[in-house]
Design a protein that fits this description.
The protein is an alpha+beta fold. It has a single domain (4-151), classed as Chemotaxis protein chec, CATH 3.40.1550.10. 34% of the residues lie in helices and 37% in strands. The chain has 3 helices and 10 strands; from the N terminus they run H-E-E-E-E-E-H-H-E-E-E-E-E. Strands 1, 2, 4, 5, 6, 7, 9 and 10 form an 8-stranded antiparallel sheet that branches. The protein has a two-stranded antiparallel sheet with strand order 3-8. Helix 1 crosses helix 3 and helix 2 packs across helix 3 (81-104). The two termini are 15 Å apart. The relative contact order is 0.30. The mean pLDDT is 92.
Length: 152
């Protein structure tokens, strides 16, 4: 939990500035080893002094709205390659900003390229470490920012 503030600050900053979302970061909480996810997940691995992963989980309709905002208002009818690229880049910016904030606290991390997954009834299992969920209320719907990290 001691590193969560960097993730919260970065998530709020990037979602507000790059996706023009009004964000209300709610209280973080721990979730179980296996949890249900929305039908769009963008995951980024974390290596270096911390290891694990972080992911944004959202409903497909919210994902389309965010992709549209990232693409200067261009309508997004389906999560095509362009929309997926925009969502992946948004997550990459969130995690890059998180890495910079952690560096300011004396922690050096690297991030992997984002992986975007879609599907019905997705679940994520992570018995190796605890997962913290940061619920984010936005003006277009809710997003979950799930973080599973531990010291190397």
């Amino acid at each position: 939990m001691e590193y969560i503030d960097s993730f919260v600050e970065a998530g709020s900053q990037i979602l507000t500035s790059m996706a023009q979302l009004e964000c209300n970061m709610r209280e973080p909480y721990f979730i179980g080893d296996e949890h249900k996810a929305e039908n769009v997940i963008i995951m980024v691995g974390v290596t270096g002094e911390l290891k694990g992963h972080a992911m944004l989980s959202m409903d497909e309709g919210i994902a389309k709205d965010i992709a549209s905002k990232m693409m200067m208002g261009m309508p997004v009818e389906a999560l095509d390659d362009m929309a997926k690229s925009a969502l992946s880049e948004l997550t990459n910016m969130v995690m890059g900003t998180t890495a910079t904030k952690l560096e300011g606290r004396g922690l050096s991390i690297d991030i992997t390229p984002p992986s975007l997954m879609t599907g019905e009834k997705l679940s994520v299992s992570n018995a190796a470490m605890k997962t913290v969920c940061i619920p984010i209320e936005t003006n277009i719907g809710d997003i979950n920012f799930n973080i599973s990290i531990k010291n190397k």
